[in-house]
Amino acid sequence: MSEQTTGAAARPERAQTWSAAGYDRNARFVSEYGVEILNWLAPQPGERILDLGCGDGVLSQKIVEAGAEVVGADTSEDLLGAARERGIDARHIDGEALPFDQEFDAVFSNAALHWMRNADAVIDGVRRALKPGGRFVAEFGGHGNVAACVTAMRAAADKFGGDAALAGPWFFPTPGEYQARLEGAGFTVERTALVARPTPLPTGMKGWLMTFRPPFFEQFGHRKDKVLKWVTDLLEPVLRASDGQWFADYMRLRVAATRQ
């Protein structure tokens, strides 16, 4: 799974690009932590499952190993290439404009839905993609996710004269808000959970920031490194442990719902 732009990437605040190698180096924890929501999915042999925001296909592969048929959807060509190398039927598809009609027993998504800001369009597309009684299982950023990181970047935008909107282009709903959207679209929500998950960063805070928010820093041109250091220094007392380990302040929303 990938933290990525799976919606209308043409908008300036969504101009996020991905390198499969860089993602593997700086963000492999995304798929490693995805095992819990994969357990919620519990894929069964013979099922046809859409992996929405499949990224490099690591979790898609686990679904295949369970005996299901998987279609992966993403918009990063580099990550799609990595997924195809794993044998996944990975397709360039906008998550806000899913083209399927009652084709899947389940739709699964890990660490991608918060990049798709038109949540109602995503939910409607998921409902249409599912067979009646099909299930939707997802984990993504919930209310309060990376709040310290976003606050630090917004402070940097104010100090250095940047666009603060580039600090947080995500959709981080509360469980109640997202449940209401699902129910309004014709889903029965089976369970939700908002889970605090401080996440160790393998390449530190700079690696995380330059993997997930390069557009914010690139707006400063030759001052990019200066702004990056300022943000990192501001976050250090809050997100760096005494042993030197950096953490991201993740809050993850998990949801399992069924199409009525």
TrEMBL record:
Keywords, ordered alphabetically: Methyltransferase, S-adenosyl-L-methionine, Transferase
GO MF annotations in UniProt: S-adenosylmethionine-dependent methyltransferase activity
Database matches in InterPro entries: Methyltransf_11, SAM-dependent_MTases_sf
SUPFAM superfamilies: S-adenosyl-L-methionine-dependent methyltransferases
Record domain Methyltransferase type: where: 50-137
Pfam families: Methyltransf_11 (PF08241)
One GO process term, biological-process aspect: methylation
Record's protein name: Methyltransferase family protein
